[in-house]
Amino acid sequence: MTLSLFEDAALYQARREELCPGATLLRGFAAPNEAAIFEALACIVTQAPFRHLITPGGFRMSVAMTNCGSYGWVSDRAGYRYDAIDPESNKPWPRMPDVFLNLAQAAAANGGFDDFEPDVCLVNRYEAGARLSLHQDKNERGFSAPIVSVSLGIPAVFLWGGSRREDKAVRIPLTHGDVMVWGGPARLRYHGILPVKEGYHPLSGVHRINLTFRKAI
Ligand code: MD3
Ligand code: FE
Q1: Which residues form the pocket of ligand 1, taking CB atoms under 6 Å from any ligand atom?
Q2: Is 7 part of any domain?
Q3: C-alpha to C-alpha distance for 51 and 63, rounded to whole angstroms
Q4: Quick check: is 3 in a domain?
Q5: 130 Cα: distance to centroid of ligand 1 (angstroms)
Q6: Is residue 54 situated within a structural domain?
């Protein structure tokens, strides 16, 4: 039997790991909603297809990205920023589906952050070999809201660093359905994803999908 997001808070307690103050790992939290999540994602990518952005330094990112919500995270030769308009379509980003918003808010509350109002969901798609080097998320206007991250599809190894780039990073394996909440003192920690290994998942095929919910503005 599959329990809904709201029926199983007690069960999730058992699989909740507090990594440090402000950082909570909710193993399998998104799994009960996997079908609705992938349906909503299919609708988003018809309007805003995945694309490989160019970094300000001129490199093509190995991770393919799209967004939904009031804003989207974009990168080009001019820099990183949030934009209400998708530069590929010149139209607003697709709206954030209810299943995404409800999941992000329930996870944030579970991690100790009530009233999370994300205005962006960045969708990252990794194929074998794709990676995200160590960075901080600091393009947002403020850092009081948490970041909620949902891992789907094939597994990956998350690199969890400290508040300085040279701080030693811990490796955390992430699998389908895992959700992480990062707020408070954990919000500006360095983090990244090691090159993804080949794999197959029935819902995502050869890909890893990550949903990152943020309050950008
Ligand atoms: C820790 N994405 O899009 S999400 C990103 O799996 C990004 O696609 C990774 O980092 C991914 O910027 C990791 C986990 C995550 C997100 C934000 C954080 C971890 C974080 C902010 C602070 C500390
Ligand atoms: Fe990040």
Answers
A1: 122, 124, 132, 137, 147, 149, 180, 182, 186-187, 189, 191, 193, 210, 212
A2: no
A3: 8
A4: no
A5: 14
A6: yes
